[in-house]
């Protein structure tokens, strides 16, 4: 019963985005929107294409507020987790990631290059929304207790093997198959999906503009000076090629029994393909 009521409340809050003007400072509204534990399916079900298109085309002030407040939550969670003082739950963060993943394709779908550039990259340099979102997603991808179990500490006096510039070996993802790591796999999956969707702008560019319009998110994501970008590349490779698809030795076993690991691997394959295909 409680779950049903929370979903009805979630849909009610979403409807307000297209019927009212919601201030960024309305903290009560934003917390109520994201605080309940939902699944990706719930978020995609209630954020209907009609509702999202109305939000993108007719209520752009609310759209900008939604994304800006969501990003502030992400950045606060990252900083608080690192310092051990966070008050934001993982459920809130996952719901924000799912919301961004759901809405971003509809922003790209407008094919309004002026609006898209202003929305994501209107501010200069690292202060633009797109740059901050890219940085936040990469930080989340390597955040202890969220997507990685712990950080290895190097022993003093231990000989260090040379590593590629920008690579952080202690943060590189491994395949997580233990029961207690299911939640961490879910977090990884939502981060990967969000990265993949944010990188998909090229799919929505008209053919005649493909050679002249830059995919600024991908450009930022693959830049060697972007924190964690090299580590992300190695993590994707490591997860993909260390995953054992045989499992129990039963053909198509993952279709019979849900396997959260294969979802992470599947998304990793897709994102790695996009990164390898991109030519800066």
Features:
single chain, 280 residues, 13 helices, 0% strand
Uncertain stretches? 154-159
Residues in β-strands, percent: under 5%
* End-to-end C-alpha gap: 51 Å
Helicity range? 55-70%
Report the count of strand segments.
0
Radius of gyration: 19 Å
Average pLDDT for all residues: 87
Topology as H/E string? HHHHHHHHHHHHH
- Number of discrete helical segments: 13
Please explain how this structure is put together.
This protein is mainly α and 280 residues long. The radius of gyration is 19 Å and the shape is globular. It has helices at 2-19, 27-34, 40-46, 49-58, 60-83, 90-109, 113-121, 129-141, 182-198, 216-222, 229-242, 253-256, 260-277. The N and C termini lie far apart (51 Å). 60% of the residues lie in helices and 0% in strands.
Would you kindly provide a brief summary of this structure?
The protein is an all-alpha fold. The chain contains 13 helices and no strands. The model is unreliable at 154-159 (pLDDT under 50).
């Amino acid at each position: 019963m409680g779950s049903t009521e929370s979903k009805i409340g979630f849909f009610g809050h979403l409807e307000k985005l297209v019927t009212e003007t919601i201030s960024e400072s309305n903290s009560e509204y934003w917390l109520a929107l994201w605080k309940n534990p939902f699944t990706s399916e719930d978020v995609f079900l209630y954020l209907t294409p009609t509702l999202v298109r109305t939000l993108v085309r007719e209520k752009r002030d609310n759209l900008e507020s939604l994304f800006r407040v969501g990003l502030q939550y992400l950045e606060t969670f990252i900083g608080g987790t690192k310092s051990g003082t966070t008050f934001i739950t993982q459920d809130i963060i996952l719901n924000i990631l799912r919301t961004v993943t759901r809405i971003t394709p509809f922003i790209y779908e407008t094919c309004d290059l002026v609006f898209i550039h202003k929305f994501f990259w209107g501010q200069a340099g690292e202060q633009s929304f797109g740059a901050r979102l890219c940085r936040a997603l990469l930080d989340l991808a390597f955040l202890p207790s969220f997507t990685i179990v712990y950080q290895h500490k190097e022993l003093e006096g231990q000989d260090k093997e040379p590593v590629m510039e920008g690579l952080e070996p202690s943060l590189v993802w491994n395949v997580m198959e233990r029961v207690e790591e299911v939640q961490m796999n879910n977090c990884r999956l939502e981060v990967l999906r969000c990265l993949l969707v944010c990188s998909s702008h090229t799919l929505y560019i008209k053919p005649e503009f493909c050679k002249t319009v830059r995919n600024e998110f991908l450009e930022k994501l693959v830049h060697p000076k972007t924190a964690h970008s090299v580590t992300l590349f190695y993590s994707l490779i490591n997860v993909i090629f260390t995953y054992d698809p045989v499992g129990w030795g039963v053909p198509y076993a993952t279709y019979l029994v849900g396997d959260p690991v294969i979802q992470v691997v599947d998304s990793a394959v897709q994102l790695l393909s996009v990164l390898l295909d991109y030519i800066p």
